[in-house]
Amino acid sequence: MRSIRLAVALTVAIAAPLAAQQPIPGLDAAGMDRSVRPGDDFFGYANGGWVRASVIPADRSAIGAFSIAAQRADTQLAQVVRDAAAANAAHGTDVQRIGDFYTSYRDTAA
User: What confidence tens digit (pLDDT) does each residue in 65-90 have?
Assistant: First the structure.
């Protein structure tokens, strides 16, 4: 019986720090403002830290997680298309077609 208690105690002692280190998926505690009571202003409680730390760019009227993700996706897509245009891809491949389409769009002299 004593060895079972010891085994359980050791298991709990080992597992407790591991459970404490794993963050909750989808929850950004850094963006919260815990100085605000959730019953008084839940938006301020849940998003206050993020609102204070975020700066709205001069060319935008708002900013959020979706606009940040869209901007990153647009930047990455533009780089993929520029790389396709610069590549010497085999005729008929998707890379060649994308590169040709982009090059024809950029051909303002014609």
Answer: 899 999 999 999 999 999 998 898 89
